[in-house]
């Protein structure tokens, strides 16, 4: 393969007309994702699904099969607990058939833990300490070592040094050297295989650990999207996970020229506002002061699998703050800042040991996530109703977050799939006796471009 380096922006999410929200179906099986595309997401104007990493990963037994094992690949075969390659292909076909796109949570920075060895989820052998992953294949020559990383344990310690961040490993994960042509070739092959199947884009996990130049070289050699589902010449959508630490040298602005950035600054800020029950008008006026990524460059979200398990509880939780959380998510859908993502995840049994919740390691429940049983949570069902009512409050100025529109958030999460719901919702504002009926044959996520706050955070018509 001849690898070339040329620029290019990958910010178009390829949403079907009128759609503008990502549903992150965390740890869902491919067959369940396909069914959700057909029966719910396509009918409620979701743009896309962000799926969990599809590549064969390390099998962890202590703790037993945790969620984070999915981020420790041992090969680029499509064999995980979510399904095999045939299941994956079927999901892509079925979701694209109803115009719901698939974005892949992609781990390209690292392979499995250097302290582990054995067989992956598809029975591929590997040896982390020796840095050998035969089914790719990778060997020790393909990883950063003491010639590039100068810390004693090869771990990142100084986040104010970009060279250390990008040349050392984190959390003992074998750190691939993306400057090497062989590594680039293997990653490009893996990504192109997914593109050829029919995915629409990638969510690049731990993007800051790789330089923009290395990523640009890889992206420039990606195939065009499958023209069975997309126009000829279409580039994949790419957005980057970016957890920013105060004082670190690597910044999210370095990556916005490549695609969008999913920044972790928005969630804590909006959570703080909703904890203190400010008016909606106050919230929108505060957003410009938060120094966030520009609207056209960001994927915006309240929480994900990392912040849900953060012991600092800097963001609202579905488990702990159901009412405020639901309204914060609904606000994020109604407010035209960024490209919104909401998560469907699961609860776990907390077990605090020495200040840490070891129960948070738990993998997904065994039940079907669409069955309304067990610990699965699908926040977007109730959020759809809230989003419609919050949009009304926007148009009338200054809606009070202390109010509970239409009883939509009751302090206890309810999944609308599990009960009979009406298509008509009514509310009477305490500050305005006007009675409002909002009638829909279906609840559609359709972000408004008519706002009365006077603030311009990026109109839906300009959002790519």
TrEMBL record:
Query: Glycosyl hydrolase family 13 catalytic domain spans which residues?
Result: 20-387
- GO molecular function annotations of the record: alpha-amylase activity; cation binding
Record's SUPFAM superfamilies? (Trans)glycosidases
Hydrolase listed as a keyword: yes
Q: Where is this region: Disordered?
A: 404-433
Per UniProt, which keywords does this protein have? Carbohydrate metabolism, Chloride, Glycosidase, Hydrolase
Output the Gene3D superfamilies linked to this UniProt entry: Glycosidases
Instruction: Spell out the reaction equation it catalyses.
Output: Endohydrolysis of (1->4)-alpha-D-glucosidic linkages in polysaccharides containing three or more (1->4)-alpha-linked D-glucose units
Its GO biological process terms? Answer: carbohydrate metabolic process
The lineage's top-level taxon is Eukaryota
Q: Which SMART domains match?
A: Aamy
| E.C. number(s) listed in UniProt | 3.2.1.1
Enzyme class, broadest EC rank: hydrolase
Q: Which InterPro entries match?
A: Alpha_amylase, GH, GH13_cat_dom
Is Hydrolase set as a keyword in this record? yes
Cofactors per UniProt? chloride; Ca(2+)
Q: Which family does it belong to?
A: Belongs to the glycosyl hydrolase 13 family.
What name is this protein filed under? alpha-amylase
Q: Which organism was this protein described from?
A: Pinctada imbricata
Recall the taxonomic lineage recorded for the source organism.
Eukaryota, Metazoa, Spiralia, Lophotrochozoa, Mollusca
């Amino acid at each position: 393969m001849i690898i070339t380096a040329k620029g290019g922006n990958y910010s178009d999410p390829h949403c079907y007309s009128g759609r503008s929200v990502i549903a992150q179906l965390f740890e869902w099986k491919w067959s369940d994702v396909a069914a959700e595309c057909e029966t719910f997401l396509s009918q409620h104007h979701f743009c896309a699904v962000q799926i969990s990493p599809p590549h064969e990963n390390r099998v962890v037994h202590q703790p037993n099969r945790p969620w984070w094992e999915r981020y420790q690949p041992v090969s680029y075969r499509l064999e995980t607990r979510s399904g095999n390659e045939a299941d994956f292909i079927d999901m892509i076909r079925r979701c694209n058939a109803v115009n719901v796109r698939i974005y892949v949570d992609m781990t390209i920075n690292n392979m499995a833990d250097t302290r582990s060895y054995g067989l992956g989820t598809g029975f591929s052998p590997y040896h982390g300490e020796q840095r050998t992953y035969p089914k790719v294949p990778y060997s020790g020559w393909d990883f950063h070592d003491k010639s590039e990383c100068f810390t004693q344990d090869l771990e990142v310690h100084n986040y104010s040094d970009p060279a250390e961040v990008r040349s050392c490993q984190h959390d003992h994960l074998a750190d691939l050297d993306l400057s090497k042509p062989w590594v680039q070739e293997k990653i490009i092959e893996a990504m192109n295989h997914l593109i050829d199947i029919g995915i629409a884009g990638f969510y690049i996990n731990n993007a800051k650990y790789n330089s923009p130049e290395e990523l640009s070289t890889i992206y420039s050699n990606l195939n065009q999207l499958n023209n069975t589902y997309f126009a000829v010449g279409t580039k994949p959508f790419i957005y980057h996970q970016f957890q920013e630490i105060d004082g670190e040298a690597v910044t999210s602005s370095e990556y916005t020229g490549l695609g969008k950035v999913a920044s972790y600054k928005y969630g804590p800020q909006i959570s703080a506002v909703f904890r203190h029950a400010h008016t909606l008008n106050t919230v929108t006026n505060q957003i410009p002061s938060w120094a966030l990524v520009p609207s056209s460059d960001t994927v915006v979200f309240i929480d994900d699998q990392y912040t849900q398990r953060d012991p600092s509880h800097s963001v609202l939780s579905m488990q702990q703050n159901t009412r405020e959380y639901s309204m914060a998510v609904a606000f994020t859908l109604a407010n035209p800042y960024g490209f919104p993502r909401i998560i469907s995840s699961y609860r776990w049994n907390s077990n605090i040991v020495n200040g840490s919740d070891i129960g948070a390691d738990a993998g997904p429940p065994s039940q079907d996530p669409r069955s309304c049983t067990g610990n699965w949570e699908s926040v977007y069902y109730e959020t759809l109703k809230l989003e419609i009512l919050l949009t009304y409050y926007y148009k009338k100025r200054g809606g009070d977050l202390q109010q509970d529109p239409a009883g939509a958030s009751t302090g206890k999460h309810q999944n609308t799939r599990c009960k009979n719901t009406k298509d008509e919702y009514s509310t009477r504002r305490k500050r305005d006796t006007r009675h409002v009926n909002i009638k829909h044959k279906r609840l559609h996520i359709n972000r408004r471009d008519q706002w009365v706050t006077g603030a311009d955070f990026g109109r839906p018509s300009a959002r790519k």
